Amino acid sequence: MPGTTYSQHPLVLPSYPRGSHLITSDITSQLSEPLKGVKAGLLHLFLQHTSCALSLNENWDSDVRKDMSDSLDKIVVEDKAGKGIYRHDAEGSDDMPAHIKSSLIGASVSIPITNGKLALGTWQGIWFLEFRDGKHRRKVLATVQGESA
């Protein structure tokens, strides 16, 4: 008997270096069972950090991810020379720019679910953007909701 289902799933992303990364397969592999049970619904992904981001964007040409990272670095510069551009610099020259980029891009995405699969466009994929130097283990809270199959 169909009904409405809601479930939450804490996910841990693999450690990624600074840059823009396609994580669609990481997400779908960790959520294959919960997604399978949804006829029509929504997947909401919430990144539980303030110095990285989630986005939906180009999934085919990796140059788009490189260009995105390069462009964000030009828009929000680091204070590598220590000139005092930012007041918040106790955690390194990449920290405050990471917070700004996170606010610009966002910490969450919502994706429709149709018949147990993500209803992404032909060229769309889920991106994780890491704005800090060094590798971090990043947590995502996934909420699956919708009409059960």
Overview of the structural elements:
The protein is an alpha+beta fold and 149 residues long. It is 25% helix and 38% strand. The chain contains four helices and eight strands; from the N terminus they run E-E-H-H-E-E-H-H-E-E-E-E. The strands form two sheets. A five-stranded antiparallel sheet has the order 1-8-3-5-6. Strands 2-7-4 form a three-stranded antiparallel sheet, sandwiched between helices. Strand 5 and strand 6 form a beta hairpin. The longest helix has 14 residues. The termini are close together. 23% of the residues are buried.
Mean pLDDT: 95
Strand numbers in spatial order across the main sheet: 1-8-3-5-6
Uncertain parts: none
How far apart the termini lie comes to 8 Å
Radius of gyration: 17 Å
| Proportion in helices | 10-25%
Order of helices and strands: EEHHEEHHEEEE
How many separate helices? 4
Question: Which percent range describes the beta-strand content?
Answer: 35-45%
Largest sheet: 5 strands, antiparallel
Number of strands: 8
Tell me the structural class. Answer: alpha+beta
